[in-house]
Amino acid sequence: MDDRVINGVISVAFSTVESLPDIGEKSWHPPVGMRLGATFYVRNAFPWLGQYFGSQKIASTLSPGVGGVLSWGGRAPAKTAAAISRLRGLPRWNLEDGFLRSVGLGKAGAIPLSIVVDDLGLPVDVSRPSRLERLISSAEDAGELGKAIREQIVRNRLSKYNHLPHRAPVIERTMKRRILLVDQVVGDMSVGKALGSHASFERMLADALASDAQCLIRTHPDVMAGHRKGYLTTEAAGKGGAIFLDDAVSVASILDVVDEVWTVSSQFGFDALLRGIPVRCYAAPFYAGWGVTEDQFGVYTKAVLADRRAGRRTVDQIAAAAFSLYPTYRDPAGWRQMDVFQAIKLIVAQQRADPRG
User: Fold this and answer.
1) Which letter does DSSP use for residue 185 in this model?
2) DSSP class of residue 324?
3) How far is CA 118 from CA 55, 109, 171, 339, in A?
4) Closest CA to 270 of 134, 178, 165, 160
5) What are phi and psi of 185, to 5 degrees?
6) Residue 181 is part of which domain span?
7) Backbone φ, ψ for residue 326 (5° rounding)
8) E strand or H helix at 22, and its extent?
């Protein structure tokens, strides 16, 4: 894509949203110069992590002189970090990959171009407000920025990982509307934290099979490879009536050929919203509850979110928060800080340079 086009879009976006913070101006991040600690797992699994915090070497959580603790995800190492931060009376920041991550999977060694740093919680955990939820709630003036981001992501056919080819999946022809059901890996933290469960997938599948639609199931890559078990894999196979999509093609390629997306808590639903596709949620991912999705919430979930997501937000406002206001972007080639538009340009350039593309 012509750089002049992207730069022009950026100028328009920021000229109408002058009050938004510059990159790096995130008051909830650890103070500049603070020595930070993390568990052995985090230090070993993410040796590049210190580059996001002043190029420092991340210390042990038990080291003297540590001013705060970094925690990744929500599994055992994160629980250990939380316990140590409480014991030592230290602040803790929750870390995750950004929503526009890389060209390639983390398991394949791809270093992320973005991470999120949250002083309140995790974006997938609806039991308490996260910093992302607060940013979405206060994003009234960010629509123009979000529109510019959304247009660039859709135009360049991007999603979180961006390593799969753009090729139409092989699907039986039909005149019926197509519903895509997004499977997730059994034990995926984002399911339970979003107040979903195995029953959520059962209900989603039953509702889809009872409709007069062609039901497609997008199988998770780890399930395709035989590494993990999917919630819908056995359930749908036993009931029949649904078609599994196991083509190794991009998110954009799949969304090109469906009319609706139904999910429990996958980011795939957000990818669909960016492209104007109706989305139904059976749990509460970060983009649900704002009036842009058809929410199949239970009584408890409605009660949890009643006072926190009462305001209506547009897809563009949510996109501004998720892709710009919330994450931090860095170029792994030299660790310079970037904004989301520069990250998009970098991903596109990496895709063009990839001989597999």
Assistant:
1) B
2) I
3) 19, 24, 40, 18
4) 160
5) -75, 135
6) 161-307
7) -90, -50
8) none
Task: Count the Cβ atoms, other than its own, within 10 Å of residue 270.
Answer: 25
Domain count for the chain: 1
Work out the number of other CB atoms within 10 angstroms of the CB of residue 69. Answer: 26
Is 31 inside a domain boundary? Answer: no
263 part of a folded domain: yes
Q: Is residue 52 in some structural domain?
A: no
- Render pLDDT for 188-224 as a digit per residue (tens, 0 to 9): 899 999 999 999 999 999 999 999 999 999 987 677 7
Give the contacts of 90 (CB within 8 A, at least 6 positions apart): 37, 66, 67, 68, 69, 84
Q: For residue range 303-353, what is the model confidence (pLDDT) as tens digits?
A: 999 999 989 999 999 999 999 999 999 999 999 999 999 999 999 999 988
Evaluated on CA atoms 183, 186, 188, 193, the torsion sign reads positive
Going 11 to 17 to 18 to 24, the CA torsion angle's sign is: negative
This prediction has a pTM of: 0.91
